[in-house]
Amino acid sequence: KMKTKCLLFVILMLLITLISGCSNEGDKYIGKWTGLSNPNNPLSDLRQVTIEKNSENNFIINEKIGSYNAYGKKCEWKENTSTDIATLKDGKLVIGGTSFTYIEKDNTLLYNGDGKYYLKKDDDDSEYTNLKKQAEPLAIERFEKYKAQEKELNTSPFERYGKTKW
Questions:
Q1: Which residues contact residue 128 at a Cβ distance below 8 angstroms, ignoring those fewer than 6 apart?
Q2: For every residue of 124-161, which 3-state class applies, written as one string?
Q3: What share of the chain is helix, strand, coil (3-state, %, to 5)?
Q4: CB 116 within 8 A of CB 110
Q5: pLDDT for 18-56, tens place per residue?
Q6: What is the secondary structure of 85-107 as a DSSP string?
Q7: Cα separation of 160 and 37, whole Å?
Q8: Backbone angles phi, psi at 150, to 5 degrees
Q9: pLDDT tens digit string along 56-115?
């Protein structure tokens, strides 16, 4: 009885080793990744890319791009989404002229498309939520300045500069 249990255990361990050893190079891309299109500007587009495996060398890329619209009547958050199919080529995920390269040393993705920037692993959405929260007060401040300038432009020069009419 003990020999049978040991044999089953050994077979199970071999199966686990065999299955885990069969991972695809593209598996490291799977998950959510988040970053700013300009890391030096917290008001730049916030991008989140969700990557799912579709087949051996194809991946579904769901992209969400959000930003504050701080012009017009009010300051509000806007998001656009898109879906594409990426192909694994030479260790990169490629969609037309856009590519994602996995950077192992810091577990990030290099996005190379309408600019180059890094995306952090963000499976729990915390990075997306934090970057959005950081941008909100800045967007409101920018919006208030814009409204004040617009109001100033719509007043007469006499009101604006405190001069009396001749």
A1: 32, 34, 46, 48, 66, 122
A2: CCHHHHHHHHHHHHHHHHHHHHHHHHHHHHCCCHHHHH
A3: 35, 40, 25
A4: yes
A5: 555 455 778 999 999 999 999 889 999 999 999 999 887
A6: EEEEETTEEEETTEEEEEEGGGT
A7: 38
A8: -65, -40
A9: 789 999 999 999 986 667 889 999 999 999 999 988 999 998 999 999 999 999 999 888
